[in-house]
Amino acid sequence: MDRGAKTDLGAVRIHKNVIASIAAIAALEIEGVKNIALVKTIDVGVLLGLKKPKGISVEFGKHDEMRLGIPLVVKYGYNIPEIAESVQDAVRMAMEKMIDRTPKDIDISIQAIEKG
Fold first, then answer.
1. pLDDT at residue 69 in the model
2. Residue 103: which domain range?
3. Three-state secondary-structure class, residue 99
4. Which H, E and C letters describe 45-96, residue by residue?
5. Percentage of the chain exceeding pLDDT 70
6. How far apart are CA 67 and CA 36, in angstroms?
7. CA–CA separation, 116 vs 107, rounded Å?
8. Residue 1 resides in a domain
9. Is residue 4 a part of any domain in this protein?
10. How far is 34 from 22, CA to CA, in rounded Å?
11. Cβ proximity of 33 and 74 under 8 Å
């Protein structure tokens, strides 16, 4: 969970799932992005159906810096580096607007290409 901010009335904490959802919505608004890929790691919990495969990763470093990993499925025929940069920009702007945080890193990994 994000360490959040303190106000006069108490603490505001934003769960990693909320941050991942913001990133997913921002990424999916970019033309050429087909979907958010599920990263299927070898995890006993995933294999047994106890856990869902991971998509967007949200991590916080020692000094509370936010790092995002976004696996994408891109539509065939689009310029991949341009899409990746557009997603990074859109996600950064969404984070700044919605949670007043700027991610230190937004790593994009293209997991697949699909037609239209």
1. 96
2. 16-114
3. helix
4. HHHCCCCCCECCEEEECCCCCEEEEEEEEEECCCCHHHHHHHHHHHHHHHHH
5. 84
6. 17
7. 24
8. no
9. no
10. 17
11. yes
CA distance 35 to 55: 10
Q: Kind and range of the H or E element at 21? A: helix 16-28
d(CA 113, CA 72): 9
Number of structural domains (the chain) is 1
Instruction: Quote the CA–CA distance of 35 and 111 in Å, as a whole number.
Output: 10
**How crowded is the C-beta side of 11, counted as CA atoms within 13 Å?**
7
For 68-109, the pLDDT digits (tens) are 999 999 999 999 999 999 999 999 999 999 999 999 999 999
CATH number of the domain residue 56 falls in: 3.30.70.1350
Residue type, 87: V
Q: Report DSSP state, residue 74.
A: E
For residue 94, CA distances in Å to 57, 72, 85, 86 come to: 16, 17, 14, 12
Q: Which two tokens stand for residue 94?
A: 């969404």
What does the alpha-carbon distance between residue 116 and residue 113 come to, in Å, rounded to a whole number?
Answer: 9
